[in-house]
């Protein structure tokens, strides 16, 4: 739940995590997520308004995500947003969740188009050329598992639970990144990604061998990051842009931040990361996106807008 003022000034960014509810399943269960969205929306709205010290009647635009994602949670959030818009008699704007991640950099004021966006999260891994705010060209995407999804699945098979990304990041600091020679899938092939084979390689080690967990995790993480970094730099140089802006949950990974910054600098490029509170899914980035598109491009959405689980960017 996010509230912004004047386009990009974030007043409130309230996040309700359901991770503990889904941990034993190793991933998000759509029905559980939908029911808890419904349960938590009203209290979050009240908390956000109180924190911003405004009344509901002060709201002049409502934005909500309409895709991509799980259809149940999307439907709950979209219905709540449209209901608020109707009851307050203000405009409504449906927001592409992936574009919201791009706008995390608009909110932080760190990046200015044109730049290359590396969007890397639990559900999405893609490279997008951001020609301007609202103008995108998709250059590459994952053909199977997203990077964050691979992190979570490796975490689940090694007993770390869900979500596993932060745990793998921390435990990898104690491991030897060269202990296992895991594949770097499609490293020299275009700008698409594939992490299913890497995940399977880790599974074979887990099933057949005694292994040192920090070494295994460090080697796995390095394989993922080597691939992300190499393709990001290749794409930026090909498109002749000097900024690589990383977004999505995996952008909080400490090793990715360190290695991409170092390797980009060697190539005359700059790596930019959003503040940690804007890395993972959050309402503020959706609010900022909606505000800019409405105020600067006069965009609105009809209340008939439905969820689009497979929505793309660019």
Detailed description of the structure:
With 314 residues, the protein is α/β, with parallel strands linked by helices. Helix 4 crosses helix 10 (283-297). The chain contains ten helices and nine strands. Helix content is 46%, strand content 16%. Helix 9 (254-266) links the parallel strand 8 and strand 9. It is globular and about 60 Å long. It has two domains: 2-100 and 279-297, ATPase, nucleotide binding domain (Nucleotidyltransferase, domain 5, 2-Layer Sandwich), CATH 3.30.420.40; 112-273, Nucleotidyltransferase, domain 5 (2-Layer Sandwich), CATH 3.30.420. Strands 7-6-5-8-9 form a five-stranded mixed beta sheet, sandwiched between helices. The longest helix is centred in the C-terminal third of the chain and has 27 residues, at 213-239.
Keywords:
314 residues; single chain; 10 helices; Nucleotidyltransferase, domain 5; 5-stranded mixed sheet; two-stranded antiparallel sheet; alpha/beta; 2 domains
Q: What order do the helices and strands come in, and which of them pair?
A:
Layout: E1 2-5, E2 9-13, H1 19-22, H2 30-52, E3 61-67, H3 71-88, E4 91-96, H4 97-108, E5 115-120, E6 125-132, E7 135-141, H5 147-157, H6 165-172, H7 196-208, H8 213-239, E8 243-247, H9 254-266, E9 270-272, H10 283-297
Helix pairs in contact: 2-3, 4-10, 5-7, 6-8, 8-9
